[in-house]
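Friendly challenge for the regulars: who can give me the structure tokens for this chain first? No prize, just bragging rights.
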Amino acid sequence: MKLAAQYIDIGSRAPTVLLNTVDAAELGVHPLDRIQIEYDSRTAIGIVEFTDELVEPGTLGVTRRLGYVTGDVDVIPAPQPNAVHYIKKKLDDIELDKHELHRIVLDIKQDRLSDVELGAYVTGTYTNGLSLEETMYLAECMAEVGDAIQWDDAVVADKHSIGGVAGNRVTPIIVPIVAAAGIKIPKTSSRAVTSPAGTADTMEVLCDVEFSLDEIKEIVTETNGCLVWGGSVNLSPVDDKIIRAETPLSIDPPGQIIASVLSKKKSAGSTHIVIDVPYGEGAKVESLAAARELAEDFKRVGDHLGMHIECTITRGSQPIGRGIGPVLEARDVLDTLAGNGPEELRLKSLRLADILLESCGCGGEAAEILDSGRALATFRDILAAQGGDPDVTVDDLVPGRHELPVAADRAGVVTHVDNRLVSDIARRAGAPRDKAAGMVLHCRVGDEIVPGDPLFTVHAESAEKLTDAERLVDKSEAVRVRSRDEALVERV
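First reply, four minutes later:
Bragging rights claimed.
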């Protein structure tokens, strides 16, 4: 069928084309089918959407993702990509080989899959899981289709946490410790997806986080470390697209977690990595047995990719720092680097840094580097290299002016601080979009509480968002206080 191609200014991640329903019926295609477009001795594949309003019969609406296509074109139905057949196999719980996984990864990278097909892939990996071999091949393929950073150093350090624990902002403390020890640590981090802050959100309070690969190399060459947003570079780009499909259902299959994390570490040129696997009530991994199994698989896949992996299994049943939200977490980071931060944040950062330094051949130095001020000095060097103010202080980081203090209404013991609820309240208050929004915790599990003692304070940049957060506070129990007898029963 001959049609007149017309550019339609509609943003689309996929190479979408718009067909009038009359032309679609003539071609015999359905929504999300594909058509082959031939023009100027070239061929393109578009994913079909129907309309009766945006294009007239005889016209093909072309969105920006497909590229510049105008004039008369020939259009015929096109077959599904091979990746769709392999996704169906995964839905049938049939193990995929390396070639099949590579085809899926390549089609995801090139946006050849519709959102429904990408969702089916995510569903298949969540429902039926990934074998160890599939995870190894998937990580390898995801690393191969992106850019990579090459370093001359034999040892390049890195760190990652699988997440799920509020206020777990250890990365901006570990990176300057390791960098001050003379080891390169090019840390690329994520923004928040379902949490109140990712490392990149927190660092963005203090400096720029979006840099090209060449700029990252310059920063690391100058300071030994960086703390940048991974989404600004093309390291394992398929990972970001898979995460986008996983987010609406809040699913994160173990095999996909491993492939996602290690493909990015491989692309960043990392050789020695410590992986933090928190477990406990409210964390992503709830049992110790599941945490150990995930840690072992991380090591096996790391061996396959030629990387040395150390895994730490940490308790994640309550938040680590006091602050939840970008500004509030940045305050904790500066305080800890200056020797005044939350004790749990300091201890966890030192433990992970020591493990990473020992893995790299210079263990036992973390506390000395932190206490001597060398880590803070290196952190300020990194801030300057990333366009931030190296002289920033905690007093410069002001929480949202709209406050909701929440106090205990009974005496007892704090038996639980719910990671999910804490995160949900901070997000209702505006985090991470509103950098100064979030929550400050005033207690920890095991603390003795009397009526009127402060439990936490919610901060927001607007009164409306504070009201929204207050509604959730009123109908939930983010901090659980029980009498001694009730606390004993809970422990049993």
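The chain is about 40% helix and 20% strand. The chain has a mean pLDDT of 92. Your move, everyone else.
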